[in-house]
Specification:
Blueprint lengths: L2 H12 L5 E5 L3 H9 L7 H12 L8 E6 L1 H4 L9 H7 L3 E5 L4 E3 L7 E3 L5 H10 L4 E8 L8 H20 L3 E8 L7 H21 L8 E2 L16 H15 L6 E4 L6 H13 L6 E6 L1 H11 L6 H19 L11
Parallel strand pairs: 1-2, 1-10, 2-3, 3-6, 6-7, 7-8, 8-9, 9-10
Antiparallel strand pairs: 4-5
Helix pairs in contact: 7-8, 8-9, 9-10, 10-11, 10-12, 11-12
The chain binds 1,3-dihydroxyacetonephosphate.
Length: 339
Amino acid sequence: MSVRDQLEGTIQALVQDGKGILAADESHPTIAKRFAAIKVESTEESRRSYRSLLLSTTDLGQFINGVILFEETLEQRDETGTPLPELAARQGIVPGIKVDKGKVALANAPGDEISRGLDGLEARVDGYATLGARFAKWRCVYHIGHHNPSRLAMEANANVLASYAATCQERGVVPIVEPEVLIDGDHTLERCARVAEAVLHDVFTALYRHGVALEYMLLKPSMVTPGKNHEQQASPQEVAEATLRVFRRTVPAAVPGINFLSGGQTPEEATRNLNAINSLSRRPWNLSFSYGRALQEPALNAWQGNPAQTLTAQQALLHRARMNSLAVRGQYRDELERE
Ligand code: 13P
């Protein structure tokens, strides 16, 4: 199969009405933090057991069409010996892989960070593809502060994202480009909108310069919201309008899908906001989710590291996946949470 056909096939599988992506690609420190909250120690075995619980959830494939995995998971197996990526693929869920190596302080830009991992990326992507990964994800973060993000941070991160995306496409792996404008802080909705617009403008300029085919990538951004410590939180309608205003100005119509991250919103908030976004008209892209915490939090709380709670945890995951699937169609209502 040609590289183009591979990219086309993966995009078709990842952009389907009413479906979204599960982010289960927490790095070791991040999963340790999530497990600590439920008093579970993070070991290779506890991570394997939790992630096989997620991927063996019956009917998950009705609402989820892709899963982002962490490197370690690609080579783990369930109790019957089935590789975890295959467990996902059996339900029609495309396995993908986080390929950035985390972030470090950006020199000469106090308060800003840059994501690492470009060195040796070619060989790593080829290796992940051999293990079943058909798409990849790279996250860059932007802090909002008095002097952040700086122009340097926006340009440097845009270049890294574009370079990663070009490398993946060349190998037949669909890149998910994730510029996350962090929710931390007390900034207003308007300030977040201005930062998001500048960030996305730089990202798409860099993608163009690096020759990335927009038709064969997905964007994973944050929604435009006030900072989580801002005194006045915004309604779903306000979030939806601000988010779409920024995206219409910056994201070309050639991009097939935008899959939002949840970024610290509560599970219900993330669903309500996604529903509001999908209730507005005039948008050229498929607008869906690629949630980590907002899909997994209730499942983690139900699981508590106890194998006897597996089914309850899977039901909690399936419920959130179904709620978000309705939100993609603009059909979510608060009452459905209690059904
Ligand atoms: P959250 O939805 O928890 O923000 O995670 C998404 C993700 O993949 C972060 O890189």
